Each structure stands twice: as structure tokens, then as C-alpha cells.
Amino acid sequence: xxxxxxxxxxxxxxxxxxxxxxxxxxxxxxxxxxxxxxxxxxxxxxxxxxxxxxxxxxxxxxxxxxxxxxxxxxxxxxxxxxxxxxxxxxxxxxxxxxxxxxxxxxxxxxxxxxxxxxxxxxxxxxxxxxxxxxxxxxxxxxxxxxxxxxxxxxxxxxxxxxxxxxxxxxxxxxxxxxxxxxxxxxxxxxxxxxxxxxxxxxxxxxxxxxxxxxxxxxxxxxxxxxxxxxxxxxxxxxxxxxxxxxxxxxxxxxxxxxxxxxxxxxxxxxxxxxxxxxxxxxxxxxxxxxxxxxxxxxxxxxxxxxxxxxxxxxxxxxxxxxxxxxxxxxxxxxxxxxxxxxxxxxxxxxxxxxxxxxxxxxxxxxxxxxxxxxxxxxxxxxxxxxxxxxxxxxxxxxxxxxxxxxxxxxxxxxxxxxxxxxxxxxxxxxxxxxxxxxxxxxxxxxxxxxxxxxxxxxxxxxxxxxxxxxxxxxxxxxxxxxxxxxxxxxxxxxxxxxxxxxxxxxxxxxxxxxxxxxxxxxxxxxxxxxxxxxxxxxxxxxxxxxxxxxxxxxxxxxxxxxxxxxxxxxxxxxx
Length: 575
Known about the structure:
Blueprint: H1 4-17, E1 22-25, H2 27-35, E2 42-45, E3 50-56, H3 57-60, E4 72-80, H4 84-101, E5 111-120, E6 134-140, H5 142-160, E7 170-174, H6 177-186, E8 191-200, E9 203-212, H7 215-219, E10 225-237, E11 242-253, E12 256-257, H8 258-268, H9 271-274, H10 283-288, H11 290-314, E13 321-322, H12 326-329, H13 332-341, H14 349-352, H15 374-397, E14 406-407, H16 412-415, H17 419-434, E15 438-445, E16 448-455, H18 468-480, H19 485-490, H20 492-505, H21 516-527, H22 534-539, H23 551-564
Helix pairs in contact: 8-11, 15-17, 18-23, 20-23
């Protein structure tokens, strides 16, 4: 890690100055970054000869009692754009701590402090009134901030190969990748495999997705399990001359009512394990347990998907290994229960769910059965993320912590319309999640655990089509109007008309650079930018200027466009 020693000194100083008792690492990348600083669960303060206990946020979420946290807590994350993640985490833990100590007579002494590796200084944040409690190593402008985000995402994608703290992870070693591809192509009656090149910035990554075509298994959950899928990543190890294939089963489950989730949990988990969860009589305390119950159930279903894939590969004498990651992020007892569950001849998921009932939330309808192509599906998800980002920005402006999550039930008209559309939906979802463009989330609302999605950490950097050529044109225009939103919008339609005619005359449409469809999308996207985050949305994509593939053809077009932009047709050139 760059500047590791300086960061360590930074954190040590904060721990000393504010008498920090616990450090809590946030999310996958914040945790992975901190593990490079401290890998044993304790952070040593040499000046005071003491240790600060380190927790992972999602491990803490699964606890029942929080009165031990009634102290000074440092939340650690890799980067901070708005501070939303920090404040939501603080709010969540404050509620849990308050409920834990309300009957104990303890005084609330909890204090939260915040540390991030990189902060975007050009962005208004929810922590602007808590600057005395916020510490960061770097402060960067939009361009540099998002370039860091992209490089970090590419690094973690390579290092973690799509690893997830909430899902079971399996791996397999083969000499030839075609061995794996032959298996998935042979099992067309039970597995639908897709593989696609995706991009994190200008870095190309290959992501695979498995769709388990086993309706009987999915039907056991009465609609709660939308699809049985798996993420696939592989890499070649030159030293060992083999491929490591990582398979992460992913049970795409829906939103669920508290009472139904509790019933499902009790049907699957035996009495001895259930006693650890303790459904307290205090209804507020019960509510705080439901995210944990949801993750327990989802992990077990995902494990069974992995177990099913393992059985298929064993037919071909290929051993899929479970990495026991449930013991790290849940507990050893939980991980042991999950593994033993599927080895117990007297217990099976079918018998457990015999009387399970799931009432679908309002708003689910079976609509059209038109087949949706992958690019159209991907564009649709992208538009949802754009709209959600705008809502999140408005909440930021009003200092509102409303969780603007895209409820998965809102997408039911797509994934319930046909099996083909469900497969395509799962493919697009997996590719976008593993590219950090969409964040897979759950939260509590009324009496439901809501499953859905938020804009990912680098969603503002992305476009659903190859944007190298169009962005070069937009950026030239953006500079011509001096990065001014009103000037940009005033002559935008004229700019688009001249740009389109230039691309048409140069026969650039339907090439690797651009199509009529992508041009129409880009035109609408940039015209729809709002003034408040106009600069951010454009500056975040400046990495596209660094793309080198076929750069001479792009330069030829942009050089002519730059001449067009000097025309008196544009109001900005009229003095």
C-alpha cells in the first residue's frame, strides 16, 4: 500500500487524541484496505502500549448486544465522496447501542469519529458540520478522486477476484480453462453460462455468470428466491501453470415481510442454533435482528447453489473447494451448521420448506413477454442508477439520510416476464455488481426487509456503451463553454447536430466506436445532467481521454470538431 507508514501514524494519532476504543472497517474495500495495515484484528498503539480491537461492520451487524460499543469508535473506509456511508453506519449503530443500554441504566457515552484514505474535496458532504471528527489522508478533485476510485476498484477486482463477505466462495484449479468451459457447455439442461468483457475505467476484466436452470429448487421458496445464480472469475497462474476459477454462488432473493422471514429462518435452522439469535419481546430489538436473519438465510441458499454446482463438476472428476469463508464473517458455529445441513440425510431443504408461505409484496405483475437483449437490459439498469443518483444528490442537498434504494420488486415486470429475460437480467446484474457500478443492498422499511440496489462506488464514471469517441467530443465542447452549465445547455442541440453530421460524413456509425443507438443514448444522457453535479459527471469520466486503442481515428474526428466549435453559429463565439 502506498504511504502505509504515514497512514499508520495518522490513525495512531487519532486513536491517541480521541482515546479510540474500537475501529470498525466499512464494506468490502474499506476492510480489505485496513487488512493491509493490520491483519490480526487488533491495532497496536506503541506510544500507549495498548491494542484497539478492530471489527468488520458486517460482522458487528450480526451481533445481538451492543452495549460494549458504548465508547469511542473510529469508522474506517477507503474513500469518501459524500459521507453518506459513514453517517448511515453511525445512525445504525447508535440505534443498536441505545436499545442495548436502555434497560441497563448505563449512560450513553458513544462518540463516533471518521477516517478515510481519500476524500473528494470538491463535493459537498453530509459531514461538513462534523469536520472536527473527520480525518483523511488525501483530498482530491473530481478528476483525481475518480481516477483513484477506478484504479482501486481494478486492483481489488484483481486481488479479490470478486470475493464477497456475504456469499460462500468456492474455487477450482484446472490446467486448461477449456476444461471448465466444456463442463458448463455440456450441462446445458441445468446450467446457462455467459461470459462477457467488462470494464473498470479502461481496464478490461472478464466476468462469467452461471444461471441454474432448476425450477423445482427455486419453486420451493414460493417466490422468495428469484433466481439461483453464481458469479465466475478466473485467472491464470504462470508459476503453477494452471487456472484458478472462483465461483461465488449468489441467491437472488426478494424483499420479505418480517414474520415470513422469521418463519423461514426457524424452518431451516434447528433449535440449538436458533437460540443464539434470541427473538426478544422488545419489538424494536427484534427488528434489529432481521438483517442478520436475512443474511443467514441467503448465505445458506447460496451455499446450496454452490453444492449443486459442485455435484455437477464432480461428474467430470473436478473438485470444487469451499473456502470456509462463512466462519470468518459469520461464525464457526454457523459455517459448521451450513455444511452439516447438506450432509444430514434426515434434513433437506424441501422438507423444511413444506409449509412455508411467502406473500409477494404489492406491485408485482406479470407483464409483457418481449425478449430483452443484453445491451437493452444493461442500458435500462444504467438509467435506473442515474435516476437514483439524482435522488441521492437531492437528499444530500437537504441533509436527508433517506435510503434511496431501488427495490428489486420494482424490476419484477422484467425478471418475471420470461425465463430468457430473467437470465439476461441476472447476467447484467452480476456484471454490474462485480464492476462496482451497482451496489447490492438490503435495509429495513416498515415490516419488510427490502432487497435492492444502490449506485455503486464508481457508477458516475461509467457509460453503458463504448464512450471513447463521444466523450472526446463532449469534453471538447465542455472546455469550449468554459465548463459552464448554462452555456453548455444553451448550444447543446446545435453541438449535437454538428457532431452527428461529422460522424455521418466520416462513416463512423456502426463501427467499434459508436452506433446510432449509443449516440442517441449519449445525447440524452449528457442533456439530462443537472446543474448541481454537472461538473462531477463530466470530470469523473476523464479517464476516457487516456484510452489509446485506435486513438488516431478518434483524433482525426475531434480535430475537425474543434474547428467546427469555433463557428459563429455558437453563441459563445459571438463576443
